[in-house]
């Protein structure tokens, strides 16, 4: 099920927490929602799930507005901080969630069993939620979000408090689910977005500042291809000059004069790898290193959100 | 299943899973039992009349204290722990949630009253017993509870601190229970009339004597519904 966010706005007094955000997420897509603290990630998610009233704009699921109460059934939601009824045993709580979500009576028990296996809760299923560790609480939160097999999953920081093994498991789980569902997840952890999401959206001060795959974000942030090469030739200055004369190279300069290391920036929309190799082969120089330089997601994030 | 009922069921179970339900039941039955049977001055044996008049007036006061203790957590805790977000992002409307909470508290009080049925049975065997008046008295207690729960629910909806909710419910209760009556008796004309109508005790007195008047029933139900309506409004205004 596709979900379409149209001109979503939330005001607190004069301050706009979310400012005219529009985007669309399609079935089978996992969207990573990135942004510094207070950027409006959670507020946006709370509006998508219609916990917070929508000041302006709308959220459309399958042609219907989320303001129609029944549409909430299509969404599975894991809120920030994962609130749970502490005094309830895990099984009772999942049953409560299933009943509230309108899961068919005959299927409730099967769904609970499925969720317990899927989220690895088998050992802890008879404990009270207050007795669980943070990782298991998070799993209970995920289980209740998915209990009615929703088409859309909204997960607000799903991996906080998990240990590295659990993080990998939950990521795998989200990826598997993502193939057939629409997933929007928020996080601070940048490698997580790269590992799980098909598409990244960075928001800052309530506005979308970047939207695309990790690769396209890199490309736009970086402009053109940058290579780091090491060439063993008789005369480093001559090598530099030859490199600068290549048609696909915009600019080449020394990183280290003695060792013959160069940084080469290609012309926009051109790759210079091949030309460099042929140049070396022609002159009988030894090309010992060629490393494509990638802008880190962290740098992109910092550039876009620190002003 | 209706979300209202699912929520009420969970809430009632959580009363009994914590000590709240047991403490309240024991205290309620202890108080009312003591004053009905044992207090000496004014109990059934002292008055030598087979009726539950003492029970009804004591139950009125006891519920006035106990209902805020039941209602204080209903919405305040949901807000504080964030679980309200879980409820309201499911297919549950504000009204269904508020009604579910109301229903759970009402059932809790009804259970407490159910445990006083033995009083009814024993006293009725002691002498010439007016069944009609007693049934009307029980109806009065249920209506009165509904009104108090409405007030308590509203108090719980505007804060996320249970103590504040408790004290506010008590304060509003004092107005309905005592203050309006006092103002009515110390003033005259339409002011007296107005506060007489608002005073909860006047309405309860007549119904506990066995006079079922539609005015009284409408009064209790309006207070209850006003409480529910205002709670729903406050919850709907969330930022």
Task: Give a summary of the structure in a few sentences.
The complex is a heterodimer of chains A (307) and B (239). Chain A has helices at 41-48, 90-100, 108-118, 134-146, 164-178, 190-196, 214-222, 236-245, 273-283, 297-305; strands at residues 3-12, 15-25, 30-34, 56-61, 64-65, 75-78, 152-156, 182-187, 199-204, 207-212, 226-232, 249-256, 261-266, 286-292. Chain A is an alpha/beta fold.
3D structure, described in words:
The complex is a heterodimer of chains A (307) and B (239). Chain A has 307 residues and is of the alpha/beta class. Chain A folds into two domains: 3-212, Rossmann fold (3-Layer(aba) Sandwich); 221-298, Alpha-Beta Plaits (2-Layer Sandwich). Chain A has helices spanning 41-48, 90-100, 108-118, 134-146, 164-178, 190-196, 214-222, 236-245, 273-283, 297-305; strands at 3-12, 15-25, 30-34, 56-61, 64-65, 75-78, 152-156, 182-187, 199-204, 207-212, 226-232, 249-256, 261-266, 286-292. Chain A has a six-stranded mixed β-sheet with strand order 6-7-8-3-9-10, with helices on both faces. Chain A is elongated. Chain B has one domain (3-236). Helix content of chain B is 82%, strand content 0%. Chain B has helices at residues 3-17, 20-38, 44-47, 53-81, 83-88, 94-114, 117-124, 131-157, 162-185, 189-198, 200-208, 214-236. In chain B, helix 1 packs across helix 6 (94-114), helix 4 runs antiparallel to helix 9 (162-185) and helix 8 packs across helix 9 (162-185). Chain B is globular and about 60 Å long. The model of chain B has no long low-confidence stretch (mean pLDDT 90). Classes of the chains: A alpha/beta (307), B mainly alpha (239). The A-B interface holds A 12, 46, 49-53, 69-70, 72-73, 75, 77, 79, 81, 83-88, 96-97, 99-102, 105, 144 and B 1, 3, 6-7, 10, 14, 17-18, 81-83, 85-93, 236, 238-239.
